[in-house]
């Protein structure tokens, strides 16, 4: 065929005279066997290497675990006291037990201003609770107390006797000042809120009101400056040099010479305390039970809080804006848990988590409860006193407050003085809870306060409750636990 003739034979292509070569196999057939053999041998070597590495790692891990366990046992046996020999720290009393944080404080939601919830506080009756503000979280409950209950509380207070709510100098202030032993420079920097190197009128006013309990106006302060010749350049500002000229008791001596009127006090009222525990009047016990259901807090927290305070404001009586409880810092102790915490500190506050305020009568004129910065977008302490307008002054500027609650017999209002810490316990102070009693312009004003004291430090609160529960008179009580006995869903319902 033509194809066979054109295609030369492989053997014919060999040069003449050369040795005859063996016939060549196809390349693919010649290499397949060799390649398969090499691949199998390489795969086997790789597998064996990985296997030995794995075995070596396992053995090394076992040695490490064994060695570590041996070291821990040796350390434990070396630290364990034998015979009469003890570690140095064993001579100290055992550390205080840590309490598991297994409780969450119920906090009522305000939803929005004007929102109304149904509240079941007494059998066969439903109260309405209205949200007055969200900052602070503030509620109003009309007809919380009956007319008879209001009358009984006022009569019990009169029977026990009321005392002046405030003296000229706050108790303990002089001792505190001596204990701290602050230099004029330290006091100056403490009062200089904006740290501009000068003391403005409102910075001095804040200090005098807290320390001396005397409510001075900017005009009063200018008179004092002139009398003491403190403000030499008469600009209303005190430099450090001018401040050094004032002795610690300069203000006190000047005010004593001038005389202090009751209207110049931070608080102008009379008050007493009524015990609400076992053996107390049934009305007082009923009020405490109602407060427990209203706040939805464990009964123990309410039982171990302050007694009921009853206050009477005569005509002209007032209480300038204030916080019921101060901020709590690591160096601050709560009054109710201080002894149980066994700590010594010059800084102490009442730690009033909730305030429940009852109006025992309807006031003819004035006497509103004012919240100067309720629901403000921001809170700025410096801006409370500006251009001689003092929002803290409930005698002059009560009408400038953002919110005022008119006193009506039987009505209760309550608010939170602290925020939540986000984990079901007490957090930072709510600065928007600033409030005061407007001046009574006509008649008499009767109110009662029920404060619920809770330490923001859970360990101190739990230790305090454990200590109280060990007292003999409380052995029969069943409520000494943080677990609430009342199901909140059965008490509060939204309208």
From TrEMBL:
What does the record give as the reaction this protein catalyses? L-prolyl-[hypoxia-inducible factor alpha subunit] + 2-oxoglutarate + O2 = trans-4-hydroxy-L-prolyl-[hypoxia-inducible factor alpha subunit] + succinate + CO2
- Give the cofactors, semicolon-separated: L-ascorbate
| Enzyme Commission number | 1.14.11.29
Sorted alphabetically, which keywords does the UniProt record give?
A: Calcium, Dioxygenase, Endoplasmic reticulum, Glycoprotein, Iron, Membrane, Metal-binding, Oxidoreductase, Repeat, Signal-anchor, Transmembrane, Transmembrane helix, Vitamin C
Topology in the membrane? Answer: Single-pass type II membrane protein
Coiled coil segments of this chain: none
Q: Where is the composition biased (Polar residues)?
A: 484-495
Q: Which Pfam families match?
A: 2OG-FeII_Oxy_3
Where's it found, cell-wise?
A: Endoplasmic reticulum membrane
The answer to whether keyword Calcium applies is yes
Domain Fe2OG dioxygenase, residue spans: 304-454
What GO molecular functions are on record for this protein?
A: hypoxia-inducible factor-proline dioxygenase activity; iron ion binding; L-ascorbic acid binding; procollagen-proline 4-dioxygenase activity
Where is the sequence biased in composition, kind Acidic residues?
1-12
Transmembrane portions of the chain = 43-67
Instruction: Region Disordered: list its residue ranges.
Output: 1-23, 73-98, 467-495
- Gene Ontology, cellular component aspect: endoplasmic reticulum membrane
**Protein function:** Catalyzes the post-translational formation of 4-hydroxyproline in hypoxia-inducible factor (HIF) alpha proteins. Hydroxylates HIF1A at 'Pro-402' and 'Pro-564'. May function as a cellular oxygen sensor and, under normoxic conditions, may target HIF through the hydroxylation for proteasomal degradation via the von Hippel-Lindau ubiquitination complex.
Subunit organization: Homodimer.
Protein name, please?
Transmembrane prolyl 4-hydroxylase
């Amino acid at each position: 065929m033509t194809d066979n003739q054109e295609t030369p034979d492989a053997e014919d292509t060999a040069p003449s005279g050369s040795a005859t070569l063996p016939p060549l196999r196809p390349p693919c057939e010649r290499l397949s066997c060799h390649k398969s053999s090499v691949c199998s041998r390489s795969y086997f070597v790789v597998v064996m290497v990985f296997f030995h590495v794995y075995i070596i790692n396992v053995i090394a891990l076992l040695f490490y675990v064994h060695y570590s366990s041996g070291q821990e046992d040796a350390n434990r046996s070396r630290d364990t006291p034998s015979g009469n020999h003890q570690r140095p720290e064993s001579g100290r009393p055992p550390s205080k037990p840590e309490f598991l944080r297994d409780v969450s404080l119920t906090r009522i939601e305000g939803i929005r201003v004007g929102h109304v919830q149904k509240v079941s506080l007494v059998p066969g009756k439903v109260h309405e609770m209205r949200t007055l503000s969200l900052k602070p979280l503030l509620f109003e409950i009309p007809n919380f107390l009956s007319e008879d209950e209001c009358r009984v509380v006022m009569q019990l207070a009169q029977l026990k006797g009321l005392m002046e709510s405030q003296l000229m100098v706050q108790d303990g202030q002089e001792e505190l000042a001596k204990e701290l032993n602050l230099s004029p420079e330290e006091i100056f920097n403490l009062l200089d809120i904006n740290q501009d190197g000068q003391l403005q009128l409102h910075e001095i006013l804040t200090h005098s009101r807290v320390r001396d309990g005397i409510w001075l106006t900017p005009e009063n302060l200018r008179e004092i400056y002139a009398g003491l010749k403190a403000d030499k350049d008469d600009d209303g500002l005190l430099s450090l040099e001018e401040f050094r000229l004032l002795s610690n008791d300069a203000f006190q001596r000047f005010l004593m010479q001038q005389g202090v009127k009751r209207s110049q006090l931070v608080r102008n009222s009379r008050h007493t305390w009524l015990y609400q525990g076992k053996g107390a009047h049934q009305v007082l016990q009923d009020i405490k039970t109602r407060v427990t259901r209203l706040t939805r807090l464990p009964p123990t927290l309410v039982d171990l809080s302050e007694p009921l305070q009853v206050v009477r404001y005569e005509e002209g009586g007032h209480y300038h804006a204030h916080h019921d409880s101060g901020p709590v810092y690591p160096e601050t102790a709560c009054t109710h848990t201080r002894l149980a915490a066994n700590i010594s500190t010059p800084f102490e506050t009442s730690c009033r988590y909730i305030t429940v305020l009852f109006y025992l009568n309807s006031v003819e004129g004035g006497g509103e409860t004012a919240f100067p910065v309720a629901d403000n977008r921001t809170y700025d302490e410096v801006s409370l006193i500006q251009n001689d307008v003092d929002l803290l002054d409930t005698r002059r500027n009560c009408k400038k407050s953002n919110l005022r609650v008119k006193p009506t017999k039987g009505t209760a209002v309550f608010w939170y003085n602290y925020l939540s810490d986000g984990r079901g316990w007490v957090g930072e102070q709510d600065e928007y809870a600033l409030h005061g009693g407007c001046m009574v312009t006509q008649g008499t004003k009767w109110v009662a306060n029920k404060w619920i004291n809770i330490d923001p430090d859970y360990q101190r609160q739990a230790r305090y409750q454990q200590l109280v529960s060990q007292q003999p008179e409380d052995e029969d009580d069943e409520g000494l636990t943080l677990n609430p006995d009342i199901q909140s869903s059965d008490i509060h319902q939204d309208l």
